[in-house]
Design brief:
By secondary structure, the chain is of the alpha/beta class. Helix 2 packs antiparallel against helix 3. The protein has six helices and 14 strands.
Length: 293
Amino acid sequence: MKHQTRGHLIAGLLFVVTVGFVLWNFNSILTSFLESGKSLPVRAVQIDGALTHLTRRGIADTVGRIAGGRNIAAVDVSKVRAAILDNPWADRVVVRKKMPDTIIVSVVEHVPAAYWNDRGLYDARAAAVFYPNLKGFSEPLVRLGAFRDNLAPEVYRSAVDFIKVLRGSGLQMVALYLDQVRCYTLTLSNGVRLILGRGRERASFRLSRFLRALPGAGIDLASTDYVDLRYDVGFAVGRKKDETQDQNETAPIQNGQINNHKPSDGTAPSPVPADAAPVRGGGKQSVKNIQKR
C-alpha cells in the first residue's frame, strides 16, 4: 500500500513538472512570436476624421515610429494615442487594432472659437484652452483673455452675451478681458474700451444702458479712449490724449448728457485699471464665428 502511494506521488510530481515545462516553453514561444516583427507586423494605418490643422501624413509618421514593423498584438495603443495627443491641435483620439495588420486612428481636432490671451486659442465645443503654434494662423476671431485659463468658458459665455447686446448697434466687439478683480473690459473695433465692471448680467445691463444713451450723449467715439460704465446713473468718458488735454481726463455723463462735474457722491471718475487692458496683439478682428454660436 505504501509503495502504491509513493508511486502515485512520484507520478503526480512528474506530471506537474512536465506540464510546467510545456507551459514555460509555450510562453517563451508565444513571447518570441509576439515580439517578432516577422509575425503579424503592422503594415497599414487607417486615419478617420476631418482634419484641418493636423495632417494624415504626420499622424501616420507618429504611428510608424511606435508601431511600424512590430507585431500588431504587441503594440501598446495607449502609447500611440498619447503620442498623437502631444500635438496641441488634437482634442480626442481613439486608437484600435484591426487584425491582422492595421492600426485605426480616429481623431477629432480642436475647433478654435476665439484667441485666448497672447498665445492660445479657445475651443468652445471642448470648453478648453490650447496652445498651438500660431505662426501662419490668422483667422478673424474675437480675442478673449483672463488671468487664469480655467476662466475661459465664463469669459466666452460673457462674450456671446455682449455680442448679442451689441447686435444692431453698429458697434463691433473685438476683444474682452476679465481682470483679477473680475472686471470686464470690452474693446470695440474702433479701439474704444468699455469698462463694464463685475458680473455678466450687470455688465450686460450697463452695456444696454450705454447703447440707449449713446445717440443723445454727444460722445465723439473717434476721440474717446475709454468709457467707464461702472456708475449707477451714468458713465464717464476718458478722451484720447492730445496737445491740450491730459490722457486721464474724464467727462462723467448722466441722463445722456456730458456733465463736467464730479459724480454726486464726490468720487472722481475711475481711470482704466492697469490690469484691465485688453488682450495684447489685438486688432480689428471679425467676430462672425462667435456670433453664430
